[in-house]
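hiii so um. not sure if this is the right channel but i have a protein structure encoded as tokens and i wanna go backwards to a sequence. like what aa goes where. can anyone help
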């Protein structure tokens, strides 16, 4: 891989493999460039890997290219499309996780960075049922909030404070961890993460 350099060109055809259709994942900022979504042989999302690692998997016939990101890696002997999504040729068994671990960053991404009481930019997280009153620190009880709403609500329930949630908090599925880890979602990943980012069944 030494001597390779990246250049930006137009996208190759957007679809080489089949994805998960009919879903709309939460809105997030785009993930950093230079990353690729790695899918299992069954099309389930496994991890996010650096583009160069993705290229190695393709060159060693361990994975197939599904989408490119519009960049190319060039050297004296190679001219390769940089992967955005790739799929392993052999199935890899992974430990089953039904839901993502709760984190402040995850709450902000799930809630689109918006206060779930007024819709303005969020700066804090709030426990819908206050912890001082037995509220649990879990996905279904934590929402993003702005300072004003957080201060107004204090140790009350939304009903007691005369406030309403714009939408109920929910538990993201395990693949949501991938979005949290890289801080966003590449457009080409949406079709393959949609069902896995949706609410738990």
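sure thing!! here u go:
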């Amino acid at each position: 891989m030494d001597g390779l350099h990246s250049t930006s060109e137009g996208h190759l055809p957007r679809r080489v493999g089949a994805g998960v259709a009919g879903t709309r994942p939460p809105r997030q900022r785009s993930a950093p460039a230079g990353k690729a979504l790695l899918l299992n042989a069954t099309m389930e999302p496994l991890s996010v890997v650096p583009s160069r690692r993705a290229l190695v998997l393709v060159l060693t016939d361990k994975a197939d290219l599904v989408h490119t990101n519009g960049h190319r890696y060039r050297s004296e002997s190679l001219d390769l499309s940089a992967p955005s999504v790739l799929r392993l040729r052999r199935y890899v068994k992974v430990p089953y996780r039904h839901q993502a671990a709760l984190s402040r960053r995850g709450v902000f991404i799930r809630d689109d960075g918006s206060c779930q009481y007024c819709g303005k930019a969020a700066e804090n997280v709030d426990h819908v049922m206050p912890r001082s009153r037995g509220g649990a620190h879990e996905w279904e009880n934590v929402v993003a909030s702005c300072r004003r709403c957080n201060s107004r609500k204090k140790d009350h329930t939304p009903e007691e404070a005369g406030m309403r949630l714009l939408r109920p908090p929910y538990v993201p599925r395990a693949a949501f961890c991938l979005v949290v880890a890289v801080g966003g979602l590449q457009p080409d990943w949406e079709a393959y993460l949609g069902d896995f980012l949706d609410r738990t069944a």
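oh and Confidence is low (pLDDT under 50) at residues 8-31.
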